[in-house]
Specification:
Strand content of chain A: 35-45%
Order of helices and strands of chain A: EEEEEEEEEEEHEEEEEEEEEEE
Number of helices of chain B: 7
Helix content of chain A: under 10%
Number of strands of chain A: 22
Strand content of chain B: 25-35%
Oligomer: heterodimer
Number of helices of chain A: 1
Strand order of the largest sheet of chain A: 2-1-11-10-7-8
Chain lengths: ~240, ~270
């Protein structure tokens, strides 16, 4: 049967055997199977359960400060050999004994040395873990939504809208330069807003058009909109 | 140039004795900021005040145009103006951080910050934490800020794989001013137009009123009346937290780069 090893900083406090069909409760209260005496640990903090596939799960019991596995906040997580569970300033390391049967989903991990890991967890680290979890999520969101102007006429290729504000106009300082007598120095901008891209008219006699409708102020861009500004014609596409 | 009508108020609320919120309404600079402090004793009040004062004095230095700063770690994907506002936020962050490190009574303090800065004919909006910035255009309200809370960041996962998190994480921030040495603000910039109305508030208001309710109160009211009505509503609904709100309405946008204005300029008529 696998083992949970409780550590505080680099000190091993105790080891617990994890058994099939038996849940292991972790928390501050005496009624738990693994009692961690620390203010940052909830009365009933988390539990380890045997799963159908022969593996084990760690489940957060709505704890105040959260349960982390390998620095990521979890609510439930299928435990793998060598997983490090952080609860407050304590760490529990989950591992199978050498030669023991593991569930099929198990990845092969380094067997040696996992028990010797040194761990210090303070509030700063806790905060960073949270930030890291959120950061990864955010990365996923923004990648989903990169707008691209695919030129139809006036220029070749495409222009990725990775800047927060893309300026279009006659002046050479613009991101996209479009000539023309009636073209404003800055004729229009495309802005990356939290809710999506917006095209705005800025100045000059040549007003931008989206799908042949003249833009006098600001419009939200939808995928496959056709944007016309003077001699520039482009399609707005989202790439993920 | 943008001509605006603005108002801002802060209210201690119904339950608390101290006010940890702080705000700035500065029409001459076109700068509007709300900061919601956190931390025990008086530390939250210190944090939000330091944020406001640092940003104000930083931005003031460049008002007459004689001083042009050399920006450190300038983000080339942003305009110069956006970079300047970010620089003021970074400076405010390190001010709060250094005080919290050096004074025992201020340890662990922090603050949110949400700011709008009007530059020429456009605006820059930036935020750290969960104080929202709304933009009202006609009958629609949109959020310009990105809430840095555990809940919001989980929920915004586009593919619906978001893990459900308990309500108690509602105010757990993933970013704050003065919490660690450096800070990353979310930013957006765009043109502004006549009638655009911006609302910046602390969570003492946004916890009590939905964006649509804020829209209803603000859209046809004068900014000072709108501010007062919003605060009154939040207090009627409990007012457990400090409440701060700024309402800025764009009255007129003078554009400098137009075809006619450039001709008028050449003719000396403008």
């Amino acid at each position: 049967m696998p083992i949970l090893q409780l550590q505080f900083k680099d000190k091993i406090i105790s080891k617990y055997r994890v058994e099939k069909g038996k849940s292991i409760k972790i928390g501050r209260r005496e009624t738990n199977d693994i009692v961690i005496e620390n203010v940052s640990v909830s009365g009933r903090h988390a539990k380890v359960e045997w799963a159908e596939n022969g593996g084990f799960m760690i489940i957060d019991m709505n704890s105040t400060n959260g349960t982390f596995v390998n620095d990521k906040m979890i609510t439930t997580h299928a435990l793998k050999h060598g997983d490090v569970i952080s609860i407050g300033k304590h760490r529990l390391i989950f591992g199978y004994v050498k030669g023991e049967a593991r569930p099929e989903v198990e990845e092969k991990t380094e067997e040696e040395g996992w028990m010797e890991k040194t761990m210090v967890l303070d509030t700063e680290e806790h905060r960073e873990m949270l930030a890291k979890t959120a950061e990864e999520l955010r990365a996923k969101i923004t990648v989903d939504k990169v707008g691209i102007l695919s030129y139809l006429t006036g220029a070749d290729g495409e222009f990725p809208l990775t800047k927060k504000l893309v300026k279009i106009g006659k002046d050479t300082a613009n991101d996209i330069v479009v000539g023309g007598f009636t073209m404003g120095k800055v004729a229009a901008t495309i802005s990356m807003m939290p809710t999506g891209y917006q095209l705005s008219y800025v100045g000059g006699m040549t007003k931008p058009k989206v799908n042949d409708t003249t833009v006098k102020e600001s419009v939200k861009l939808e995928e496959f909109d056709t944007i016309t500004i003077g001699s520039l014609k482009a399609k707005f596409i989202l790439k993920g | 140039m943008v001509v605006v009508e603005s108002a801002g108020i802060t209210d201690v609320g119904c339950k608390r004795t101290g006010n940890e919120d702080c705000y700035l309404v500065d029409d001459s600079m076109g700068l509007y900021i709300v900061a919601d402090g956190m931390g025990g004793h008086q530390a939250g009040e210190v944090a939000s005040r330091v944020v406001i004062e640092t940003m104000k004095s930083y931005m003031e230095r460049f008002q007459d145009g004689s001083v042009v700063e050399e920006l450190e770690d300038e983000d080339l994907d942003l305009t110069r103006e956006a970079n300047r506002l970010l620089a003021s936020i970074r400076l405010a962050n390190s001010s709060v951080f250094s005080i919290s490190q050096s004074k025992e009574s201020c340890r662990g303090m922090g603050s949110t910050v949400s700011a709008i800065w009007f530059t020429g004919d456009s605006f820059v909006a930036a935020n750290v934490g969960d104080s929202p910035i709304y933009l009202i255009q006609g009958d629609s309200i949109e959020t310009l800020s990105v809430p840095h809370t555990v809940i919001a960041e989980q929920a915004s996962m586009a593919n619906g794989n978001a893990i459900k998190i308990d309500e108690k994480f509602r105010h757990m921030l993933t970013r704050g001013m003065g919490v660690i040495e450096t800070v990353d603000a979310d930013i957006c910039e765009n043109q502004c137009f006549n009638g655009n109305t911006f609302v910046i508030c602390s969570d003492g208001l946004s916890d009590k009123l939905t964006p649509d309710e804020i829209l209803d109160v603000v859209k046809d009211a004068k900014p000072d009346k709108a501010c007062q009505d919003l605060v009154d509503l939040a207090k009627e609904r409990g007012g457990e937290d400090n409440i701060t709100v700024i309402v800025v309405r764009v009255k007129k946008v003078k554009r400098g780069s137009g075809f006619f204005s450039s001709i008028l300029k050449k003719l000396g008529l403008s």
